[in-house]
Write a structure and sequence with these properties.
With 174 residues, this protein is of the alpha+beta class. The protein has 2 domains: 54 residues; 98 residues, Immunoglobulin-like (Sandwich). The chain contains 3 helices and 8 strands; from the N terminus they run H-H-H-E-E-E-E-E-E-E-E. The chain is elongated.
């Protein structure tokens, strides 16, 4: 048996089937491959036509009737997204109230407010009804601070994005 790249398969088939003419077998192999490819293409075409027919059919009537109501969200509307608390002397404690209105369609439930260690915030622990106003009481301690300060207030609640930010700026003199 020869191990040439061309003719190895053909020679094995010829000796197994008793055929002597290798060229004739090679030609039959090409024809068989072409037939196989043609059969595959025809099967793919018929499957695609069947899929297109299913897509073209109208949806069942009950799918048109079914409606899903999405739950409402609360929305916090502040006077501003940035507040300027002015200038203070180091060691001074500043208190301000930031008012907001729930302009959403659901009661506002504040889960958590996150700020830096120099700031404490008192917020309503009860739901704020739609259209109702409330406020955040911000207390900033300027101890160990100097220069311009930017404090981010991160509010976690039942808002469309789940979180809202507001910022206040303060300048601490030595």
């Amino acid at each position: 048996m020869t191990f040439r790249k061309t003719g190895l398969r053909c020679k094995r088939l010829c000796t197994m089937s008793g055929l002597k003419d290798r060229r004739r077998l090679r030609g039959q192999g090409l024809r068989a491959g072409a037939m196989l490819s043609l059969t595959f293409l025809m099967a793919c075409t018929s499957l695609r036509q069947a899929a297109d027919e299913q897509i073209a059919q109208p949806a069942p009537a009950e799918a048109e009737v079914m409606q899903v109501e999405a739950p409402g969200f609360a929305t916090m509307s502040f006077d501003s997204s940035r507040y300027h608390f002015g200038e203070v002397k180091r060691g001074q404690v500043v208190e301000r109230e930031l008012s907001f209105v729930n302009t959403g369609t659901a009661p506002l439930d504040i889960a958590l407010i996150s700020v830096c260690e120099c700031t404490t915030i008192d917020y309503p622990h009860h739901p704020v009804a739609p259209g109702e106003s409330a406020s955040l009481r911000v207390r900033y301690d300027s101890k160990d601070k100097e220069g311009p300060q930017v404090v981010d207030i991160e509010i976690h609640a039942n808002l469309p994005t789940g979180i809202q930010f507001t910022v206040f700026y303060i300048f601490v003199r030595p």
